[in-house]
């Protein structure tokens, strides 16, 4: 899977551009939809824990990938299931804004 290769490369380098993260998550979504993203989330959770246990220098980046995957799922799948009558009014962003900036 190219998605996992991209994530592995970024962990080796210790950095990743936000655009690469977004494009990678879109690619995973296009390949398998919500289920592929859930599988990726589970894989990243296990990987982040393993990297932390081994004290890998870039385990925080793995955690950032996990967080980005979860935010993608929340913003593109969870918000779609809310009905307009019960859904709170909120701005749809990929990454949530701090409370003091929310309008």
Note the topology.
Elements: H1 2-13, H2 18-53, H3 59-81
Helix pairs in contact: 1-2, 2-3
Q: Any descriptors?
A:
Transposase; 103 residues; 3 helices; mainly alpha; globular
Describe the structure.
- By secondary structure, the chain is an all-alpha fold.
- It has one domain (2-101).
- The chain is built from three helices and no strands.
- It has helices at 2-13, 18-53, 59-81.
- Helix 1 crosses helix 2 (18-53) and helix 2 (18-53) packs across helix 3 (59-81).
- The radius of gyration is 15 Å and the shape is globular.
- It starts with a helix and ends in a 22-residue tail after the last helix.
- The model has no long low-confidence stretch (mean pLDDT 83).
- Please provide the ordered H/E string of secondary-structure elements: HHH
Helix share bin = 55-70%
Mean pLDDT, as a whole number? 83
Beta-strand residue fraction = under 5%
Number of helical runs? 3
Largest sheet: none
């Amino acid at each position: 899977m190219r998605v996992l290769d991209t994530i592995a490369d970024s962990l080796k380098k210790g950095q990743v551009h936000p655009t690469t993260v977004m494009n990678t998550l879109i690619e995973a979504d296009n390949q398998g939809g919500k289920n592929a993203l859930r599988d990726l989330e589970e894989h990243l959770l296990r990987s982040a824990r393993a990297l932390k246990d081994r004290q890998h220098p870039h385990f925080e980046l793995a955690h950032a990938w996990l967080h980005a995957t979860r935010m993608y799922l929340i913003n593109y799948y969870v918000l779609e299931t809310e009905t307009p009558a019960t859904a709170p009014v909120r701005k749809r962003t990929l990454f949530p804004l701090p409370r003091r900036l929310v309008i």
